[in-house]
Design a protein that fits this description.
The protein is mainly beta. The chain contains 1 helix and 7 strands. Strands 1, 2, 3, 4, 5, 6 and 7 form a 7-stranded mixed beta sheet that branches. The radius of gyration is 15 Å and the shape is globular.
């Protein structure tokens, strides 16, 4: 175990990709100084946790959308450590579909945005989604 990380460090990051045409749903957060970051709805997984069930629950809580989680679309690496003490876990991006995409963002978020892949680089990504541009 690396120093500075809890004994039960997450084993993966599960993210939900809900698309509308060529745009994907991102949640927004505002810092205390007003800087906005965007991120996919996601959750950290513990060893042995069912990623589909955990993501479905967290996706509903974060967005207010009762989405259906499908297969993994792609996988990248997410650093759960620091810049100095890196610890990478898989970042699994699952396809999510929903009959109704009316978003009701959870209180920790300031809202949501539908962002195309071409426009993603124009936005500041939250730490848990910076791997999207790599």
């Amino acid at each position: 175990m690396k120093r500075g990380l809890p004994a039960s460090a997450p084993s993966a990051l599960a993210c939900g990709l809900l698309e509308d045409g060529n745009r994907a749903l991102f949640l927004c957060r505002k810092s205390l100084v007003g800087a906005e970051t965007v991120e996919l709805p996601c959750c950290l997984l513990q060893k042995g946790e069912n990623p589909v069930a955990a993501l479905a629950t967290e996706f509903r809580r974060q967005t207010g959308i009762d989405g259906q989680v499908h297969d993994v679309l792609f996988e990248k690496r997410h650093n759960i450590g620091s810049k100095k003490r890196r610890l990478f876990v898989p970042a699994l991006v699952f396809k999510v579909t929903a009959k109704n995409a009316s978003v009701r963002a959870a209180p920790e978020f300031s809202g949501c945005r539908w962002i195309s892949s071409e426009d993603l680089a124009k936005h500041r990504l939250a730490r848990n989604c910076q791997w999207l541009l790599r």
